[in-house]
Amino acid sequence: MGTLQKFSSNELVLSHMEAWQVLVFFFGGNAGVKPGWLNDNDRSFAQALLIEAIDASAAMGWIETLWKSSVKPNASVKDIIKALAKKAATDWFKKATKKKLEDPEIYQFVKSSLTRNWRSAWEIRVQTDGETAVY
Questions:
Q1: What is the pLDDT of residue 119?
Q2: Which pTM was predicted?
Q3: Is 40 within 8 Å of 14 (Cβ atoms)?
């Protein structure tokens, strides 16, 4: 969970509103911005966060029975994950399968780790009005 994938403009699947909902899922509140203020780098960041969360949770495999603390994404984020799964390139996910993506589950500690690792970068981006790249 150290580096995130980067997506070019033509690889972006998430709309501004979907990216904003993902950022709210990870960073709470209103994510410090309005959906219309997000640029392509922000959308790429949100998409990468979501893919990393899904993939890292899918990689847990057998640990699931030991660690059953997961965050069930709200309906809108769950719909975003399903739409992302339909449009995503197969190489974006390393561990998550199409079956796993039908009923997505994100482990709380995966979400917490990503939030902790990327909160400062996101806050700097918000404070600089998008002048500073997130990642």
A1: 94
A2: 0.77
A3: no
